[in-house]
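Aim 2 progress update. The chain analyzed this quarter is reproduced below.
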Amino acid sequence: MQRDLTQIPIVKATLRSRWPQLIIRVIALAGFVFAIVAGLIGTPVGNHNFSIVFVWIAWWALLMLFAVPFLGRGWCSICPIPMPGEWLQNGAVLGPQKKGLSLGHKWPKRFRNIWLQNIAFTLVALFSATILTQPSITGIVLLIFLVLAIATSLIFERRAFCRYLCPVGGFIGLYSQLAPVEVRVKDAEVCAAHIEKSCYIGSADGYGCPWLVYPGTLTKNTYCGTCLECLRTCTQDNVAFNLRSFGADLQQPAGRRLDEAFKAFIMLGAAMIYSAVMLGQWGALKSAAYSVGSLPWLEYAVAFVAFIFGVLPGLFLIAVAVGRRLSQSKETLKKTFVAFAYTLVPLGLAAWIAFSIAFVFSNISYLWPTLSDPMGQGWNLLGTANVSWTPYLTSMAPLLQTLVLLGGLAWASVTARRIAAEKLSGRRVMLQALPVTAFCFVITVGLMGLLIA
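Predicted structure tokens:
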């Protein structure tokens, strides 16, 4: 069931206007730049520095507990990172694009996938213990993101950084498949008959799709940045912003890919490792993760990569192969593996939400003193500099985490059955889906042990 929100005049006018989006993005850009400055020259004490508290606690809470589950790529629509490069590329801040500074090269064909995003996220995750606690490292990482976004905008066409490189955009795209919102065309036949394709090419009313997506064939949220340029440039009034059921994209067999499948393993595996390192009781593991460059850290890094790219997908492959044998499926093992990897999307999102409930609410009280003293220089701008650290929801967190993880398991189980039913029928559906469901059950129990026990 869908409801096109552009049928509401005030909503349509708001979405078509660039001003609300621009204002939010400018504010976000100011905060992003300040986070870089605070990280580089502010206090080295992480829980008193704006860059750590606002980026890895406040922003992360907003992203994982609200934006991704309910708005999909909504964050990408207001993300400040590509803004400076995009302004230079387009030669304009608002309105029709002019002759900008970009060379406009096409992104190399061999890299038109999310493998680079997968690698980028893995690298960030490997160093996350220091990134999340040392303001100077956070400042450097954020600055690298900004420089890379500007550089790719000056060399390549449109938002190449967002589409192919951004590690945050990679996992938002994966989990955006679950969100109850989407940008879609109202009638694909209207698009097919429209010669100009202004939604992709651009027009006097706006830019061609920055994400290099043709809306007329869009069926999944994964690569749509929800920038709404197609809504502004479509001359046929054929673009809708829909409310829909949660997880609608998981029911789309077309477009399943190996790089996306491995993104699901990377995100699920990283959630498990983060839970063990940051919330677990294993001092040696925590010490190894924080001792970047040491022999224990190298051992930790090897184990991290091996678990995410070897152990986790290997065990899942066994589960898929057992189900394939039991159901006597004629589908190739590779196609079956890729298809069933999408059952890990709701499971992975549940894992990250459960982790965030514990991590964020035990640290969010650092926000209040940081608002008064963002650089850690002894300021007291709002009178909250001396508010003491107090963990929130300590009694409710385990229950909330349990409900979230069980909800993720149930969603993954339903998804497994639906995927099996695409090629099979009757009892064979259950036989194909059962080993995958068992795998998800074991992972859920493991997460409960890491997060709640």
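The beta strands are 3-4, 181-185, 202-203, 206-207, 239-243. DSSP finds 21 helices and five strands in the chain. These observations will guide the mutagenesis experiments scheduled for the next reporting period.
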